[in-house]
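Marked as duplicate of an earlier ticket. Keeping the data here for the record.
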Amino acid sequence: MRVLSLFTLSLFAAAAFAEEKECPPSYSYCGYSGPAQWPNLPVDKNECAGPRQSPINLVAPAPTPGEPIKVEYKAGDATIWNSGHDIRVIPKSDAGRIRIGGKEYPLVNFHFHTPSEHRIPGVSAQAEIHVVHQLGNEYAVIGVMLTAGRPYEALAPVFANLPAKACTKFEAKIDFDKLLPKELTSYYTYIGSLTTPPCTEGVNWYVLDRALTLLGPDLTKLTALGSNNRPLQNNPKLPVTHIRPK
């Protein structure tokens, strides 16, 4: 167990270093380094022109029963970082995992896009959270649409310490255990990609089919930082499954 714990801690340290080594990033969401140019960026293993790119418009046949996602997060200290292209919350130690398909994916970070990157179906939300998990080279990302409404308790420390300036950060305790319900049973799933360079493919996406709410002033703070949503990548259209209990 001690060896596993040390490995997990080293994974978080390596991930944090890798994410912070280039700030602001070499790409943007408009102009000469915008999404149309991402396939030409000189980044390692660039897959931005690949056939399984995200985000997409989530259209699926009638919902079918499927496997629930077990959420097993735990509270802990985190870095709230303005990466230059998003607001990112990175656990400083093991913050738990999700379980699906017989696998356990540790939580790596969550971050925000405004407006939402996915559409359900054809309709975007004011914002979207991407909750990123990684097991070796395999990613599992939960997408959560956000609209204005009641408080989102787990996000209160984020917006109390929101770093408005690029490449700045704050430390705060985050109740990751309150970030999502303990069991997720209604979602769209497909195999796509990360939505920022290098746009790594083979990502398992699970996008909740119902939006969660965030206080209006907090949503305003987020959108005031500017748009950071990649355009829809619908060529070719990827098969989507809509999981929902009967």
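See parent ticket for discussion. The chain has one domain: 2-243.
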